[in-house]
Amino acid sequence: MQEQLINFLMYILYIPIVFIIHELGHALFVVLFGKEVREVQLGFGKDLFRIKKFVVKRSMGWNGGYCSWENIDSLAWYKKIVIFLGGIILNLVTATLVWIFGDVQYADWYRSFIILSYFIAVINLLPFKFKSNITKIESDGLQCIKLLNSMKQGK
């Protein structure tokens, strides 16, 4: 029972952390390709607090996050794909590093982080739109498919 409680609490704690890592993955590649990140946000809705370009919204991180950047139309198509997949890449890298280098003695504490990170990475590969009364967002996978389709059609 105690182990189940620890796992549940770790999932709650790690959800916003995994979303922040995901959004920072997009931001990392935007900056590496010479563009500017406008904002990295956790959650949606009205601002709860802001520190420079990082903002936490009222709904917190239970329903995701968002990274906005300046126009990337001038970038090569493969750089755009890397930006769209940047969150997935960073989720997979951080989860794998924790898995490889994590001390087995503390596995109960970080197992939830690994599972959530892989889960978020896989879910974001699926092409879907997330709509709520607060926001409308396309998954990373859908953005990649749209980009590849527009290239195929010569746009």
TrEMBL record:
Keywords: Hydrolase, Membrane, Protease, Transmembrane, Transmembrane helix
Domain of life: Bacteria
GO biological process: proteolysis
Membrane topology: Multi-pass membrane protein
Membrane spanning stretches: 12-33, 81-102, 108-126
Cofactor entry: Zn(2+)
InterPro entries tied to this protein: Peptidase_M50
Family: Belongs to the peptidase M50B family.
Protein name: Site-2 protease family protein
Organism of this sequence: Solibacillus faecavium
